[in-house]
Design a protein that fits this description.
Elements lengths: L1 H67 L3 E6 L16 E5 L5 H11 L1 H17 L1 H11 L13 H17 L5 H8 L2 H18 L2 H38 L1
Antiparallel strand pairs: 1-2
């Protein structure tokens, strides 16, 4: 029984924490590099212009996740323009929230609230690719998930593609970079999340086998990891382009 529980715990750690953790770290790092390049070339106005929508979506993702986990919202600024006369005012947005520390559900929520921008912005970029560049979406989908059914391709308007590209650049520059406050917030819920995972492992060990757990996780999470890889590729291409522009 203990061997089965250990195997289930390992699969949960691998598929729910380790794989998305590695992909998310790479994505946040790439987005931070893009943010630094844009700010270095154009300063704060450039960051607002090329990443402002991303900042709004970053904070909106945290706000929605906080509400889903029953947190009390104290103060919100989806986009904040720092004051030039205040050197300590360098925040582009924030969501201040509070929770009941004796509520396991709300404590677990801190983990997901901290990483919510990665979840929300990745989902939105995948949807933008799906509807504005379906052929690219299909090609990338078939590359990683060959058994997936391709979507029908309908030639869209050029303005839609341009608008979608501008929005995706904004998300890539301003949406994914997790601040120290975001990560610190996630740490508040790690212990609670571990408790939930242990209880889940005990329940799954009783109801099924490790192989069944793996198959279920693959069926439901592979598409999520595909979306993360798609977003990483877009950020990497944008980074290459920004590096070329920065040298000129």
């Amino acid at each position: 029984m203990m061997k089965t529980i250990g195997a289930v715990i390992w699969q949960l750690l691998l598929w729910i924490i380790l794989i998305p953790g590695v992909l998310g770290t790479v994505l946040v790092w790439m987005s931070r590099k893009n943010k630094q390049l844009v700010t270095g070339m154009n300063g704060l106005p450039g960051m607002i212009l090329f990443g402002g929508v991303g900042v709004i979506l970053h904070e909106l993702s945290r706000l929605i996740m906080a509400l889903l986990f029953g947190h009390h919202i104290d103060r919100v600024a989806l986009l904040h323009i720092p004051r030039r006369d205040d050197p300590n005012d360098n925040c582009l947005g924030y969501v201040n929230h509070s929770w009941n520390d004796h509520n396991l559900y709300q404590r677990c929520g801190n983990v997901f609230i901290g990483i919510a921008p990665v979840i929300g912005c990745t989902l939105l970029m995948a949807l933008l690719t799906r509807y504005l560049a379906p052929q690219i979406y299909n090609d990338f989908l078939q590359l990683f998930l060959p058994n997936a059914t391709p979507l029908p391709v309908d030639d869209g308007q050029k303005w839609q593609l341009i608008a979608g590209l501008v929005l995706m650049i904004n998300i890539a520059v301003g949406g994914f970079d997790l601040s120290g406050a975001d990560l610190q917030n996630s740490l508040h819920g790690v212990t609670a999340l571990i408790i939930v995972m242990l209880l889940t492992a005990l329940l799954l060990s009783w109801l099924s086998t490790p192989l069944t757990v793996v198959q279920w996780l693959k069926e439901h999470l592979l598409i999520c990891y595909w979306a993360l890889v798609l977003t990483i590729v877009f950020n990497f291409v944008l980074w290459l382009l920004l590096r070329v522009l920065d040298r000129h």
